[in-house]
Each structure stands twice: as C-alpha cells, then as structure tokens.
Amino acid sequence: MTTTADYGEKIPNNVDLREDRRLQRALESWQPNFLSWWDSMGPSLPTQDVYLRTAVNVGREGWAHFGHVAMRDYRWGIFLADRKEDRRIAFGQHKGEPVWQKVPGEYRADLQRLIVIQGDTEPASVEQQRNLGATAPSLYDLRNLFQVNVEEGRHLWAMVYLLHAYFGREGREEAEELLHRNSGSEESPRILGAFNEETPDWLSFFMFTYFTDRDGKYQLGTLKESAFDPLSRTCEFMLKEESHHMFVGTTGIDRVVQRTVELMREHDTDDVIAHGGIPLEVIQKYVNFHYSVSLDLFGGETSTNVANYFTAGLKGRWAEERRKDDHRLTDDSIMVDAIVDGTVGQTEVAALVGLNTDLRREYISDCQNGLNRWNRILEEAGVPQRLRLPHAAFNRRVGAFTGIEATPEGEIISAEEWERRKGGWLPTDVDKAHVRSLMQPVHQPGKIAAWIAPPRQGINGKPFDYDYVHLA
C-alpha cells in the first residue's frame, strides 16, 4: 500500500495492483467496457481537452494535479486512503475487534449489496448529466460539470475494484451489470429512484449536486465507518472528491439567487421572467422537488436491514466515533416520523431500527446550511422573500409518508387538493419550459449567461476568463 498513485500502470492505483496479476488482468479486461460506456453514455459535447484535477496522492496535502486533459484519456484509477495501523471496529457487536481485511463469509452478501448500490449511483449521475454540456452558461461551469463527471467515473472504479478484488465471480458479474443498467431505462433502470430522474437543465444540475450528492456524502460517511477496512478506506478518499460536487451545487445556487435579486432590484419587480431570470418562486419549487426526492434516498424511517448492518459492523452512523454512547445501541430508543391518528407526528422505536432517521436528520441539518447561505444573499439585497426546506412529509414516495399528501408546511391534504395545488409547490411544465428556454450555451472565455452571476473566483487560482475547456 502506497500513498502515491502509480501512473506507470495501465490502471493508476495505490493498491499494488501489479502484485496480483489475476486481479490486474480482470480489471484490465473491464476497462474497455468502461470506456465504451463512457463513449456512449458519458458527456455528449465534443471537446479537445478540459482543465481537470487528477488524484495523484491520498495524503492530506497536495493530493491532486491540475492540467488540460482529453476526457477520454483521463486516468481513472483506484485509490484507497492510507491504512491506519491497529484500526479497531468502532461499533456493533464486534466493537473493539481488529477491522477486517477480507470479507467475513457470513456478511458477504450484505457487503456486496451495499457496494453494488453505492456503485450504481456513480455512473447513473453521469448518464443523467450527459447532455448538459450543450447548454453550459460558461466555460467555468462546463469545466465543473466535466470534473464532476470524471470523478463519478472514478468512484465507479472504486466500487468495481472492491467487487473484483473481494467478491470473486459474483463480484465480476455485478461489475458488468453496473455498465448495463442505465438511468431512466424502462428495461434496466438504475437501482434508486432519484437516479432515474432526468437532469434537463442547469438549475436541476445545481440542485442535484447540492441535495442528491449530499445524500451521497452521508451514505459514504456511514460506509467509511465500516469494519471492512478496504471499503472504509475507499470511501474516505471518495469523500475528498465528493466535496467538490457539493461545492458546485452550493455556489451554483448562490449565483442563480444572486442574479435573480440583481434583476429584481434593477427592474423593481419580483417577476424576472421577462428579464431573462429565474423567479425566486421557481427556485423554491426546484428546492422542494430535489430535496423531497433526495429524502427518499435514505429509505424508510425504520429498517431492520440497517439495524443488522450496524450490529454486524458493516455500516456505522455519521461521525460514529464522535458519538457519546456505547456504540451498540441495544438498549437505546429514538423518535421517528410517523402518521399518528391521521396527522403527522412521531413514535418511539428502538434506536437500532431508527438509524435511517438518525442519518436523515444529519442530512437535513446540513441541507439547512445552504438555505441559510441563499437567504443571506436575499437579506443583503433587501429582498423580503426567503427560501426554505419543505416539511419532511412533503412529496414523499418512500417511508412513513408514502400514503399521504402534505403541503410544504406539513399539513395533510386530500389527493384531490394535492392535484389542485401541487403546481404552486413543484415545478410545472411551464416553469420547466421557461428554465429550459434560458439554457443557451455560452462557450466563450470570460462570458456568462444572463440568468446566473459569475463566480467569485476561478479554479485552482485561475481567473474566470481562463480557457477551462477547449471545444472540438
């Protein structure tokens, strides 16, 4: 195990791949299939090269190299964070025992399933974002899209390595299937619902990278705690790259809100449609949709599967080792969302069964930070409106609120009333058509579309007008 990646290899890695010729051959035979998938399902806009960062090291400092790269030649590789000597299992029935370097037989199926589900999300988002390059509002944004895409591709490699290295023939077959499912496909869709939704415009992309990639952060955070050490170290490094994806979403929405309030003040109106902007009301609808869909990714409020994963040591809680309890939870309880006597309420369940709720609450608290940022922009502009997260019962299709309809304030309403009022809460066809109408490409250095403000700074110290992307 080396900290620095070996770029002399066909597959860059820091896991001494050359020491296992059989594994190396298997991964090298998967590589052309990956490139074929990238060519057919990856970014559709032709480019010569893109100013990308490539992981070269897993240490805390200086882990990435920046330079113009032809995207198909990007050096996707396998990187695990440094191994911690004498690392111990931090939770569950095996707490205190040494972590596992191999997969225990009794947990093989569960671990494989967790890795496959995580792996399936990575190429899915590339497929969802495939055509966005054609409508990029600036070369800076285009570069950020492509950076997200190549890193999702690398995260797929991370999971495929684990499947090949530790799960034998079944793992190799699952790795192939990761390239055969496609986002939105009727015959072979991606596993999780949110990854079959379309991402047709850049406002959707910013919302996706803010809300849905943030779900990814929390899922990776639970797997980082795993007693299976290669999975833990893989996810620890993936989290480094994932932070940029959420940065793209956070600052993207910053800039949309900023431009909208500039237009509101300039023209003294809340209705900025005629002036080429996105109204705050529409931004709120997009928040409502992407947030509610992302909440569903955490599963039901209660789950015996997740309780079993925790007890077995497969998947911990967010920031497990900072928790002030016994890390076994056998006698603890938690309040979870529920429908109680026909209204939105809570009920008490065993803490182990309520771990999805624990994780979702961490996520909700984190999401609120973005709303606070965007509301500061509104406040500083002297605009009275504020953006908000809808109630957890709103627009839900998984968990306790599946069978009901609720307003963004959490009031239960009839299905008929929902149908009558949902256009005020979720993007309508008219809203989507307006947003799409603004998606005119701006592919000249230093120029930007009129519906979004420029960034405060460029990438890696470069100015905004740098030639981040050379188009074909």
Topology (elements, then pairings):
Blueprint: H1 21-41, E1 47-55, E2 64-69, H2 108-128, H3 139-166, H4 168-180, H5 202-224, H6 229-267, H7 280-296, H8 304-312, E3 333-340, E4 343-350, H9 355-380, E5 405-406, E6 412-413, H10 415-421, H11 429-438, E7 469-471
Antiparallel strand pairs: 1-2, 1-7, 3-4, 5-6
Helix pairs in contact: 1-3, 1-4, 2-3, 2-4, 3-4, 3-6, 5-6, 5-7, 5-9, 6-9
Question: Can you give a write-up of this model?
Answer:
The chain is mainly alpha-helical. The chain has helices at 21-41, 108-128, 139-166, 168-180, 202-224, 229-267, 280-296, 304-312, 355-380, 415-421, 429-438; strands spanning 47-55, 64-69, 333-340, 343-350, 405-406, 412-413, 469-471. A hairpin with an 8-residue loop joins strand 1 (47-55) and strand 2. Helix 5 (202-224) packs antiparallel against helix 6 (229-267), helix 5 runs parallel beside helix 7 and helix 6 runs parallel beside helix 9. The longest helix has 39 residues, at 229-267. The protein is globular, with a radius of gyration of 23 Å.
Rough outline: globular
Helix content: 40-55%
CATH topology: Ribonucleotide Reductase, subunit A
Query: For the record, what is the CATH homologous superfamily label?
Result: Ribonucleotide Reductase, subunit A
Structural class: mainly alpha
Task: Provide the domain count.
Answer: 1
Based on CA atoms alone, the radius of gyration comes out at: 23 Å
pLDDT averaged residue by residue: 96
Q: What's the number of extended β-strand segments?
A: 7
Question: Helical stretch count?
Answer: 11
Unreliable segments of 5+ consecutive residues: none
CATH architecture: Orthogonal Bundle
Largest sheet: 3 strands, antiparallel
Distance between the termini: 39 Å
Placed side by side, the strands forming the largest sheet appear as: 2-1-7
